[in-house]
Recover the amino acids of this structure.
């Protein structure tokens, strides 16, 4: 799983997702191991990042449980089971403050 997490972080970085943070839930959740959180400036960047992560997941045989890329939203998500990726518009990320909520789990 560590290799997969690092590969997804690289994909996000390559797609210009900024301020990527990893929250390690391996000892705290039966549902997923990691949350990856990043910021983008617009929906086009978010969709490009989600598409690249989805393409990687399908190529690697990972289950894509759901993708939330509603054009009206400023919070995008792809659930790969053990890894969940959250991509926010900059201002929206601060509004929900997932890092603050789970600050003890940032790695």
């Amino acid at each position: 799983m560590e290799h997969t997490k690092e590969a997804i972080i690289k994909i996000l970085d390559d797609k210009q997702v900024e301020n990527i943070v990893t929250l390690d839930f391996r000892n705290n959740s039966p549902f997923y191991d990691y949350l990856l959180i990043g910021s983008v400036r617009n929906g086009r960047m978010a969709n490009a990042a989600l598409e690249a992560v989805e393409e990687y997941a399908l190529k690697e045989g990972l289950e894509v449980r759901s993708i939330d890329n509603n054009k009206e939203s400023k919070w995008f998500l792809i659930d790969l089971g053990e890894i969940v990726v959250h991509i926010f518009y900059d201002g929206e990320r601060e509004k929900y403050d997932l890092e603050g909520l789970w600050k003890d789990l940032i790695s």
Summary: The longest strand covers residues 18-24. The domain at 2-105 is CATH 3.30.460.10 (Beta Polymerase; domain 2). Helices lie at 2-14, 43-59, 90-96, 98-101.
